[in-house]
Amino acid sequence: MVQTEEMSQLQQQALIDINEAANEKELQDVKVKYLGKKGSVSGLMKHMKDLPNEEKPQYGQQVNEVRQAIETEIESRQELLAKEQLEQQLATEKIDVTLPSRKMAIGAKHPLTRTIEEIEDLFLGLGYEIVDGYEVEQDYYNFEALNLPKSHPARDMQDSFYITEEILMRTHTSPVQARTMEKRNGKAPVKIICPGKVYRRDSDDATHSHQFTQIEGLVVDENIKMSDLKGTLELLAKSLFGDEREIRLRPSYFPFTEPSVEVDISCFKCKGKGCNVCKHTGWIEILGSGMVHPNVLEKAGYDSTKYTGFAFGMGPDRIAMLKYGIEDIRHFYTNDVRFLNQFKAVEDRGEQ
Ligand code: PHE
Fold first, then answer.
1. What is the distance of C-alpha 164 from the center of its chain?
2. Measured in angstroms, how far is the CA atom of residue 322 from the centroid of ligand 1?
3. Cβ atoms 316, 119 nearer than 8 A
4. How far apart, in whole angstroms, are the C-alpha atoms of residue 213 and residue 15?
5. Cis link prior to 195 (omega < 30° from 0)?
6. Is residue 290 within 6 Å of ligand 1 at its C-beta?
C-alpha cells in the first residue's frame, strides 16, 4: 500500500513548516502541531479503526514512517538554528582587542611591608629561616616559656589583651622562638627570624599603637657569643641605615635574655652631632636583644651547658618611621591612600 494522499500532504506541509520556523521557539510549536498528543500524526492514527484488519499493520507502519521523517527534519533544523544563533552571537559580541583599556590605579607597596621585606632579605642572605607564629597565643608561650612566670613583675612591661586567663593576643613575636625551639627538640643550629603583628594594651598616639609589628631573631648553637650578636646587629644597622652607621650596646633588662642590651645606632641624620631625630644625643634606639637566658633554653629542651644563643626583637614600625621620616605611627594602619601613594616615588626611584 502506498502512502495515502492525506499522509503525503501532511508530510510535505510539515517539512515546509519546519523549514520556515525561524527560531527554536517556532520550531517547538511546529513539533507540537505535528507530533504532539493531539497533533496531526496522531490524527492519522485515528483512521486505523475504519480500515479492514489486514490493512491495519501496513497503515500503522506508514504513519510511523511519516512520523520519523518529520522527526529527522526537526532535528536537523534544530541543529541548523542553534548554529546560526551561535554565529550571530559571535558576530554581535565581537570585542575589539586593540581598544585602549581603562587605566588601573596602581598603588604602592606599604612602607611596613617594604621594611619587613628588606629585613627578611638581609637575614635570608645570612642563612636564616623565616618562621610564622600565632597572633592568638597561649600565656605559656608568650610569657612562661620565656622565663616570665605568672606572678613575675616584668609582665607589667607588656600590657596585654587577654581572651581567657590562658589565651591572649601575643604581645611580642618571642613566643615563636619558644615554639620553634620546642619543636626542634634540642637540635641545633636554630637560626630564624619571625616577623608578625603583635598587640599591647596601649592608648594610641603618634608613637604608640595597640597593634604594631615586630621581627624577632634567634640563633642557638654551640659557641654562640655576644660578639656574634654584635656583629649581626652591626650588619643590620648598616644595611638599613647606611654603611657609616655604628652601633652602641647599652645594658638593659629582658626576662628572656641575660645579659640583655638595648641597641642604638649612630644618628643617620646629623651623623652624631645631635638633632631632633636623635633627640640631640647622636644615638637612636632601634631594638632590644641579648643572650638567650639559660632557663629559656632549658624549658625548650636545650642543654644550656652545651648550647648558647642570642635573640633580638625590633619594631619595623619604628624603623620605617625613622627611614622615611614618618611622624605618626597611626598612618600605617589608617590606610589613607594619600599617605600610601607617597611611596610610589620611592619605588620609582628604585630605592628600598
Ligand atoms: N620581645 C622583646 C619585646 O617585645 C624584644 C626582645 C626580643 C628583646 C628578643 C630581647 C630579645 O620587648
1. 28
2. 19
3. yes
4. 78
5. no
6. yes
Q: How confident is the chain (352 residues) per 10-residue block, as mean pLDDT?
A: 80 92 92 90 86 89 92 94 91 87 84 96 98 97 96 88 96 97 95 97 88 97 98 97 95 97 94 89 96 97 97 96 92 90 80 65
Q: Which residues contact 271 (CB under 8 A, 6 or more apart)?
A: 244
Atom of ligand 1 nearest to the CA of 146: 1
d(CA 314, ligand 1 centre) in Å: 7
Give the residue whose CA is nearest to atom 2 of ligand 1.
Answer: 313
Domain 111-335, what fold? BirA Bifunctional Protein; domain 2 (3.30.930)
Measured between its terminal Cα atoms, the distance across the chain in Å is 96
- Boundaries of every domain in the chain: 1-92, 111-335
CA distance 87 to 82: 9
Map grid coordinates 515546509 to a residue: 16
User: What single DSSP character describes residue 58?
Assistant: H
**Among all chains, which residue has been given the C-alpha cell 484488519?**
53
Q: Where are the beta strands (DSSP E) in 93-189?
A: 129-130, 136-138, 167-169
pTM (two decimals):
0.71
